[in-house]
Amino acid sequence: MTAVSISSIPSDPRARHQRSRSSISRDRAWALRWSYFFLILFAIVFLTPPVYMLITSLKTSAEISAATNPWWVYAPTLDNYAALISSAQFLTFFRNSAVVSVLVVSITMLISVPAAFALSRMRFWGSASIATGVFLTYLVPETLLFLPLFKMFAVFHEYTGIELINRWWVLLFVYPTLTVPFCTWVMIGYFASIPRELDEAALIDGANYRQVVTRIFIPVALPGIIAAAIFAFTVSWAQFLYPLAFTTSADQLVLPVGIITSLIKGDVFNWGQIMTGALLGAAPPLVIYAFLMDYYIAGLTAGATKG
Amino acid sequence: VAEENVAVTVFQNAQALATVQRRSGLRRAMQRKSVIAFLMTLPLILLVVIFVLYPALYSLHLATLNKSMERFVGFGNFEFLFRRETFWMVVKQSCIFAVTAVVFKALFGFVIAHFVHNIPSKGQRKWRGMLLVPWVIPPAMSCLAWLWLFDPSYSAFNWLLQKVAIGPVPWTGDAAWARCVIILVNIWIGAPFFMIMYLAALKSVPEQLYEAAAVDGASWWQRTWYVTLPMMRNIIAITVLFSLIVTFANFDIVRILTAGGPIDQTHIFATWAFRVGIESGDIPLGASVSLFMLPILTIAAIFILRDINRRGNEA
């Protein structure tokens, strides 16, 4: 058909224009269909593990070890959830994780908000190098530091008699090394985008720096601060290596380590409860993400795009 | 009249005094500004020095001690490592793991970002939200789900494969499969991050450039190659370098999925350092192993820093 139309009216520019436009829109339609097709495919792949967690968490142990279709729940039950929620041990893990994460977020904010304000607003000798240094610190992985830290804590114990290994609160000292550099870096970028006149005006009117930060700056910079706080929370909630290396007794463990050490006994995997625990452990970050998605993504992309 | 004059003078003096006071107040504030600023940054500096800088240097020292950490052995630990076959396997495995995973993450991220960018903008939020879920779930938790999906006897994938008459795959039991599985899980966790970064970059490419290219009759490939890629070059470079560091130093995935097995064949630097340093109690040897992550981290960091400085100068 197109061949006919081309040969019949080859010299009419308007017709040719229409034809090319319709072919573009047809291309668009196909591109759209393919896009949806692949998006659905990727969404299936990406959501399989969490969905499978949910499926397994609703099964009884008998059904899990039966030779039935693993992708379907034949006799749904909430027993696994009831067992975990009534287990004092699991609640301890959850509480430890929650306490550590909330405190780490607070500590991070107390350290990085003033630091980011000072580094982005109050140029002083060495401030530029400190900002770069902060960024470099963010690139140092925890896998490089856990052994010297472990030894440092042991030496500290020898000298002062204060035991740091196998205490949940020691995580309050080491987690900020993961959260503070990135949060400070992101907030330096965010603070730099706020007009300087705002705080200069307040300074000239006689406000001191504390007032400028708390009354003027923090309210305006709140979106950046929330994004950084979400990042700090998700990092501390998900951290696995430090608690695995530094804590061992059941009452000191945080959730990720607790699930793995308490629900896997030797070669016996209680999969129903493990998946329930993993799902409950994944829930807080997922809930935060669901409600504050824009802040979450802003924090994620700010590190590289704003720098 | 005199009284009036006095009143005027007093008023003027008061005004002058006020400006002087305000000026000196401002000046004092300026003088103290650097002190205040330094105090505000002090907690950050202390944190970095005590818990990052010092341990990093301390690990250099630790690496030169013997197992009981009483005797200086120089490069003894490194000589010992170089003689061990496991060490070279760990080096190889770490490099293969990091490079393959990053390449595929970047590739999938790029492709998915394009698909999301293609669809009408009102649906994009929903898809983006769904596709970022693997990144949001704590890796330790999602790795447990993968471990269960790859379970030797109850693997749900094997159940599906059995339906199409493909025999049970030893997902984590066989070294070659286990390596693939680890890379696969890493891609699953990391690709959404690339997707989000690229999507943000795609949004920032001016629409006029595509219109101009379309007017010039550029094909889809040409538009991608000559418009999209050059515009996104910076963000691609920095995301890849970031990811290279994080992937190279990865711990959670290997630890949970295989714990280095079968027979230490899937260990990467971090997990082997943990095995040697914490579980076998040889902290100096573990520290020596983890120090091997430094070269690649330094190289990546230098490139990232250069990029950031360049952009800082442009701005």
Structure, described:
The complex is a heterodimer of chains A (307) and B (315). In chain A, α5 packs parallel to α9, α5 runs antiparallel to α12 and α12 packs across α16. With 307 residues, chain A is mainly alpha-helical. The N terminus of chain A is likely disordered. In chain A, strands 1-2 form a two-stranded antiparallel ribbon. Chain A starts with a helix and ends with a helix. Chain A has 16 helices and two strands. Chain B is mainly α and 315 residues long. Chain B is 80% helix and 0% strand. The termini of chain B are far apart. At the A-B interface, α2, α5, α6, α7 and α9 of A face α1, α3, α4, α5 and α6 of B.
The coarse silhouette of chain A is flat
Measured distance between first and last alpha carbons of chain B: 62 Å
Low-confidence stretches of chain A: 1-12
Q: Report mean pLDDT of chain A, rounded to a whole number.
A: 81
The percent range for helix content of chain A is: over 70%
Name the pair of protein chains with the most residues at their interface, and give those residue counts. Answer: A-B, 101 and 101 residues
Order of helical and strand elements of chain B:
HHHHHHHHHHHHHH
Query: What is the beta-strand fraction of chain A?
Result: under 5%
Major sheet of chain A: order of its strands? 1-2
Oligomer classification: heterodimer
Low-confidence segments of chain B, given as residue ranges, are none
Count of helical segments of chain A? Answer: 16
State the separation between the terminal residues of chain A, measured CA to CA: 55 Å
Describe the structure in brief.
Chain A has 307 residues and is an all-alpha fold. Chain A contains 16 helices and 2 strands.
Helix and strand layout, with pairings?
The complex is a heterodimer of chains A (307) and B (315).
Chain A: H1 2-8, H2 13-57, H3 61-65, H4 79-85, H5 88-121, H6 127-139, H7 142-160, H8 171-174, H9 176-192, H10 196-204, H11 209-220, H12 222-238, H13 241-246, H14 255-263, E1 264-265, E2 268-269, H15 271-291, H16 293-305
Helix pairs in contact in A: 2-15, 4-15, 5-9, 5-12, 5-14, 6-9, 9-12, 10-11, 12-16, 14-15, 15-16
Chain B: H1 2-62, H2 76-83, H3 85-118, H4 121-131, H5 133-136, H6 139-149, H7 156-163, H8 175-203, H9 207-215, H10 220-248, H11 252-257, H12 269-279, H13 283-291, H14 294-314
Helix pairs in contact in B: 3-8, 3-10, 8-10, 10-14, 12-13
